Amino acid sequence: xxxxxxxxxxxxxxxxxxxxxxxxxxxxxxxxxxxxxxxxxxxxxxxxxxxxxxxxxxxxxxxxxxxxxxxxxxxxxxxxxxxxxxxxxxxxxxxxxxxxxxxxxxxxxxxxxxxxxxxxxxxxxxxxxxxxxxxxxxxxxxxxxxxxxxxxxxxx
Length: 156
Prior knowledge:
Blueprint: H1 2-10, E1 13-17, H2 26-36, E2 40-44, E3 50-51, E4 54-55, E5 69-72, H3 76-86, E6 93-97, H4 108-116, E7 120-125, H5 136-146
Helix pairs in contact: 3-4
């Protein structure tokens, strides 16, 4: 999983599904943080025309063909449909966000679908622990590592 994470970090373009117009929501905060770090982020939300002044895409099928990375900050039930929509796109890697609590975006069905369709997947981890981590996210990384709660597929 570490190689997949490095591919995400080393690519300056990515899409983010689950972005919100509400600044207090995680999808919006993640969008702003990644943009601030210099990444070109293509927000996806079927209900928005723009977010933070940037054009918002309605689905992954509308993304430019250059986009190979997708972060999902969506409810699990939305994740399953979005990964199916990725099958006929340029998306090669999917990161199913999971923060400090709850299930995050991931489902077992979505993970299996991604793998079965020759895409790479990261799950069980918050992207901000790696893009490069600062503040609470750096602490979150070390707490997961020390408590042995890193996914078994992650290795250094």
